[in-house]
Amino acid sequence: MDSITAVAEEVAEIEVEEEEPFKLDEENAIDFFFNYAKDLKENKVRLTTSMGSFTVQLYDNVPYHKANFIYLARQGYFDNTQFHRIVKDFIIQGGNSDDRETAQKRGKIGRYLLPPDAKKGYKHHRGTISMPSSERDNPHKLASPYEFFIVVTKPGAYHLDGSYTPFGKVIDGMDVVDEINSVPVGDGDWPWQNVYILKAEVL
User: What fold characterizes domain 24-202?
Assistant: First the structure.
């Protein structure tokens, strides 16, 4: 190998290393999750929390939200986030935290919203996992992809139907969800005792 070729290969290696890491955004998220969903055989995620674990099964025909949740779980996004909003006998909401690490993880994954998919006939029965709307200026109820809520109301919270996207249900460990829903809360429904998601595992 002559010296010119060697230098050229070194430069090429440096350029590869400096390539921008992939980030999701408003332009590429839908195509990305459309393709990601095609090869997705898994449809269950176990969430291990500081109060026990429960398992959700995700609906195959709500593909963007299912793919998004599994992708974030595989990226380790949910690990060490919290159930930051707990409304008694209504919902527990997770996927956020006020620490710097969570903001950094979001920054690496990207900034995007998901379109609502509320017309598949799923209702907000007790145990349903659904996606809240973003708090940004959001007339189309676009979903905030990093957060989710689980309905604890018996038999359900049907006034939410049509406004939010149910994308799965709790199939094991609903007693843990109820226990999380029972912790004391302060202003803004933030629990006094932090309830962490220690790990999210795709099964």
Answer: Cyclophilin (2.40.100)
